[in-house]
Amino acid sequence: MNDKREPYDSTYVPFPEGRLRVITAGDHGPPVLLLSGAGMDNAMLSWRHLIPALAAEHRVLALDWPKQGGSRQWEGVADHQTMLRCITGVLDHFGLESVNLVGMSQGGGMTLAYAIEHPDRVRNIVPIAPGGIISFPPGVHQLLWLIAKMPRLTTGVSTMMFRKREAVVSLIRKTLVPGPVDDFEEIVDEVHQLVHEGGAGASDWQNGSIGFWRMRLDLRPRLAEISCPTLFIQGDKDVGVAPKHTVAAAAEVPGARLEMFEGNGHWVNRQSPERVNALIIDFLAADRAGFDKAAG
């Protein structure tokens, strides 16, 4: 089992339900908060390659969501409002008036939601294959609602399945990283270890987002309220968040830019890290220039 020691400091931010681990890197430049996905994910799995790339010119924070990674001990349901409160709590803890947000999947949905709810605290956002903007056909929707109503059962079954390394390999290759990647075996090791440490299943945010007839969480009607510079990143082979949903979402956000990665799946940040890193660093260049000018 992989037991890779991380080269970064961690701070634990207290909340009434538990404490959140925040990985920190970089000691100067505009702050960037990285928000990972749901399920079998955490801050280091999502952002292993982006953290060092950003840290050269940014103050980087990478949050482990409640019940994930170093924040696994958490009492109560980590629903949408709780997650918004987690972001605010982290910003307040570090004394940050505003921040750049980069989010993957669930984290991408939270990136959009936070820009809607707290526009004064957001500088720029980069939602990558974001949740919160999708819907499902009738029948499929009701099946997913039923699955969400039985989290213990589905988590138990998923955990049993993905304790087998070959099942993790198949999942990643078919749905998350469908193309070649240099560190594929390391990704498999990381996910496999997460299953053994915390199980496999959907997050409270995912389970709570779907009602019987329609999505309880649907950010699409409010996307036009986002006023900060926005860069959407999406893999065209993504089966978790269909590219059409991200294309439609980008069209609703005023002035938003969309970058579609050919041959990439849901984890474009791990499949094409050098391209994603360069794109994000370039996108944040104007903010760095303004931040440095104000600081100097």
UniProtKB/TrEMBL annotation:
GO biological process per UniProt: acylglycerol catabolic process
Entry-linked InterPro entries: AB_hydrolase_1, AB_hydrolase_fold, AB_hydrolase_sf, Epox_hydrolase-like
Short name of one Pfam family: Abhydrolase_1
Gene Ontology cellular component terms for the protein in this record: membrane
GO molecular function annotations of the record: monoacylglycerol lipase activity
EC identifiers of the protein: 3.7.1.14
Alphabetic keyword roster: Hydrolase
Protein name: 2-hydroxy-6-oxononadienedioate/2-hydroxy-6-oxononatrienedioate hydrolase
Source organism: Actinoalloteichus hoggarensis
